[in-house]
Design brief:
alpha/beta, binds fe (ii) ion, Rossmann fold, 375 residues, 16 helices, binds nicotinamide-adenine-dinucleotide, 8 strands, 6-stranded parallel beta sheet, Dehydroquinate synthase-like, alpha domain
């Protein structure tokens, strides 16, 4: 059995300039980023490469429409290597830009896909949020307008050749995306630790990620949100380790349940996970309190200064996270009882990749009731 799925070389630099010097950018490179990252971090370096901005194709997380229009444009361009600098949105789009592309991306995401990715260009990924870990996973997420939900394509052809961590990018990340992406990373680490596809190696990275991220949150709770600027590297490395952990161990119910919410109500990925996280974990902890969740509860309890490893840990975790950023009840996004049933259906029908990895067996009623609890 495979113990760790990781095909990407990982580098770290203090500045983007140091990266440019080491990776020797040329006119054969295509830099894919956002203008608001290009201006402060890259423009003054007079790079020789071609530059494309994600926002030319849309400002939301990636959709099938955005993918199809970028693919149509890229077919006219010559480039040998993609340098993707951005959050999970830019990064996931770049994974397809380094692959052979279908005429319609839906062909790769429909229930029985008729197109599979094939890696044909070198891909360098520089994440600028501290969340997705996508720089080291083989997954590209997409919102399918045809199905009104988000879905992932997991294929080893989507791995980047290089992942480059440059924590200085996190300086300009606004507070809300910072928090939501860091909470997303924490969820990757926790879910992969308790999921059924865990290995010792995935847990090693997951546990370290939890420590780095939780100690960061604790510092922010104690010293104020600006304390994060002193420890950006911990968030950058923590999210990367969480990516390595879930690349093997996989996510499960939190992510599976967040995709219909994100898809139907256009809630950002990290935010929609956060809306469900502690409720799902409490459910896990009550159903099987003595399994792997006990290890995680212990780690969280130690950092939070608690004398318990029971489900109450998640009340304290929620309180700590909510003091940093409010968790909205699902009603505030427009969800009601009827929609909870619709979303539970979507989870059971479309998210089996994740639901086969839950910590405890879950059926439609469990999912529906958990949505109701988050209302
Ligand atoms: N492929 C995977 O393994 C994987 C895993 C988890 C999530 N995802 C996907 O990633 C996407 C979410 O990615 P995300 O949470 O990184 O958010 P994001 O890419 O949507 O970025 C959030 C916002 O912050 C801006 N931004 C990013 N970095 C910045 C910086 N340093 N300074 C200023 N602004 C900055 C972005 O332009 C955007 O407006 C979702 O589509 C999600 O489904 C993919
Ligand atoms: Fe995620």
């Amino acid at each position: 059995m495979r113990q760790l799925l990781l095909k990407t070389d990982i580098h770290k630099f203090d500045t983007f300039k140091e990266f440019v010097e080491e990776f020797k950018l040329t006119e054969d490179d295509l830099l894919f980023t956002n203008e608001w990252l290009y201006k402060p971090y890259m423009e003054h370096l007079n790079l020789p490469c071609q530059v494309y901005f994600q926002e030319q194709y849309g400002l939301t997380e990636p959709t099938d429409i955005m993918y199809n229009s970028i693919m149509a444009d890229l077919k006219k361009l010559n480039y040998k290597r993609i340098i993707a600098v951005g959050g999970g949105t830019v990064v996931d789009m770049a994974k397809w830009m380094a692959s052979e592309m279908p005429d319609d991306i839906y062909d790769a995401y429909k229930l029985n896909p008729t197109f599979f990715p094939k890696h044909i260009k070198e891909l360098v990924i520089i994440p600028t949020t501290c969340g997705t870990g996508s720089e080291v996973t083989n997954i590209a997420m997409i919102y399918l307008t045809k199905e009104n939900t988000k879905k992932g394509c997991a294929n080893n052809e989507l791995f980047a050749d290089y992942a480059v961590l440059i924590p200085e990018f996190l300086k300009t990340l606004p507070y809300n995306p910072f928090m939501y992406s860091a909470i997303d990373a924490l969820i990757h680490a926790v879910e992969s630790y308790v999921g059924r596809r865990y290995t010792d190696a995935s847990r090693l990275f997951g546990k370290r990620a939890i420590e780095l991220l939780m100690n960061g949150f604790k510092k922010m709770v104690e010293e104020g949100p600006d304390a994060r600027f002193e420890i950006l590297e911990d968030f950058s490395i923590g999210s990367n380790y969480a990516g390595i952990a879930f690349g093997t161990g996989g996510c499960n119910a939190v992510h599976a349940m967040s995709f219909p919410l994100g898809g139907m109500f256009h809630v950002a990925h990290g935010e929609s996970n956060y809306a469900l996280f502690t409720t799902v974990m409490k459910f896990y902890a009550r159903k099987n309190p003595t399994g792997a969740i006990k290890d995680i509860n212990r780690v969280l309890a130690d950092i939070l200064g608690l004398d318990t490893d029971g489900p109450e840990v998640y009340d304290a975790l929620e309180e700590a996270l909510c003091s940093l950023i409010r968790r909205k009840p699902l009603r505030e996004y427009g969800v009601n009882e009827e929609i909870c049933a619709e979303m539970a259906d979507l989870v059971i029908e479309q998210q089996q990749r994740l639901m086969t990895n839950t910590y405890v067996e879950m059926d439609y009623n469990d999912v529906y009731n958990l949505y109701l609890q988050c209302l």
